[in-house]
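pinning this so it doesn't scroll away 📌
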Amino acid sequence: MMKIGAFAQAGQVPADTIRYYEKIGLLTAGHRNDAGYRVYGEQQLATLRFIRSAKQLGMSLDTIKQLLDIQVNKAEAHCEDVKLFVGQQLKQLEEKIEEFNRMHAAMQQLHDACCGGDEAATCCSILQALEAGDV
């Protein structure tokens, strides 16, 4: 059993993150010891690692909460349920990639159109394009 500091270190997250996850119902402390401190065990550490792994993939906390519900009730769920969540996340990621590619192309166009000289910025093509909404 670990107190929150050791648990945070083992899970490689700040203690405030653990408190936040508890507040929103993603994580629960095993119990409180005689002194009233939260204590955590291996089950909570596995849950924290699960949350961290899903966050690293860009999953929202709502999606993680739904996946944790499936994780807890594995026998009653199906792989297709999990695949559906991951498929939704993949689609959102692909949309973000397309958006970043559009942003990159627009910014590259602005950059390439600018002379970058030492004249006053009153004639700056980047500022003019942004002001005109031509991005």
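📌 and the second one:
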Amino acid sequence: MNLDSYVDERLAKDGITKEEFWDGYEDFKIGVYLKEIRLNSGLTQEELAKRIKTTKSVISRMENHSEDVKLSTLEKVAKALGKRVKIAIV
């Protein structure tokens, strides 16, 4: 199944518009990026949490339910992983 077929199937199943689907994807994508960067850095959620003085559950929520991540927290995570945050409004 290709991406277009998957999206069409999800739209029909969930009764949502394409805009709603892609908005949700953008939220989800941030969490996927954070997890990928953390794993590539060789850190567990607990190790990253210690670096930014928070809990493992906060890291898990960011990676799995990233629709409302504070910019300040995102900057702490990026710094702990040797990265920086870059924001674009297009």
